[in-house]
Amino acid sequence: MTNNNFSEKENNNKTANNHIDLSKKDNDKKKIYNAISEIDDDLIEEARPKKSEKKRPDFRKWMAAAAAILVFILGVPFLLNLTNLMPGFDEKQAGADPAEVDRKDQQAQSSALEGQISRSDNYGPHLAVNYPGAYAFEDYETRQEIREQNPLSEDFLRAVNDFSFRTAAAVLSENQAGENANYSPLSLYYALAIAGSGAGSETAVELLDLLGTEDAATLNDQSGNLYRRLYFDNEIGKFQMANSLWLDNDFNGQPIEYKDDFVKNAAENYYASSHSVDFSDPETATAMAGWVADNTNGTLQPEVEIDSEQIFSIINTVYFRDQWIVRFDAKKTEPGIFHLVNGEEVEIDFMHQIFGTAGFTVGDGFTRAGLSLKNGGTMHFILPDEGVSPYELISAPEKLEKVLSGGEQLWGEVVWQIPKFDFDTKLDLIQILQKLGINNAFTPEADFSGIT
Asked: What is 18-323+425-442's CATH topology?
């Protein structure tokens, strides 16, 4: 496949950084309301894979739109008159008996959440989580057990796919400057889901509507099942989504109490650790940045900004690493011309590979082909037809869905010329979320009473 007007990344390991801050401006209500300040997306390394199937909703499909290591920081400021009693449990090491992953981890976490703890001086985790147990690459039996233990409904898979198409079209079509952009629907979905699990009234209605679920209980259960089915950590690669809650104990001298059910649910279904911090202390930013680095294997080294009026943050990272099934020969990498969307040309290194007979898809204005990865994913590449702008293909959710899953499948010779490059992305999602129906959360009437 030759290249024209479309930028993709080289490999199968990449990073991004999204940042959402919500700051508290009133303290006369018991509700959380925000002014989400900024979402930044730093894509540092290489591109990543996804697996998409036609006919049946595929929970890997939307992973492809974002392919990488992605970080969300969601700071939610809210109201006081409360005292902070943080639940906690002992930290255990991942890698438990593979046959007892998932449900037994949840039970262990649930029983361990009985204790109460106080803030430590080093901002370490007060409530640490057990990630699903690791299993070997060729342990197909355990892989199948995990699938059976964590069922996913067709409605939920369709909701996640719809969310991915809606938000990706909105985010990517905003980028009219011809710049490279990286966006992870999966990471945004989980960040909003955690926030939604603590929302009430109109705030919850809007969040659940965008997330495509009727109630928070279903959202929590299915998000937990999806997490466990996506997770892997073996000798070939790794996919780990890490979440964390950063909780300030007081605001202006008034103690804050966080609800046990919220923290417990975040740990059990979103694998979110909890950290008690002081947002007026610069060391908090250092601790948060260190957590991001630790959970992305050092790939991300962010500079985290905090606000002394901030009292609550959620950080989400997604780390992905895998290997091509048919690997590129480094000796065949050589310079070539890449055609930019604005008509300009740049010289860049290309990886080369030719498949004498392979499947590819031709649709209205595009050609699509994919490269498979060893842990079951596929990285899809979209090549716009000559004279077709990439923006035409992603201008609406329906068009983006056709680009990623529609078209006529054909067979023939496929010539791969994959450009090697990296880039950073910063995205401001406030207005986009508002256009998608999330309005109440950005007002003083926002209801996050399920958190505190």
From this structure: Antithrombin; Chain I, domain 2 (3.30.497)
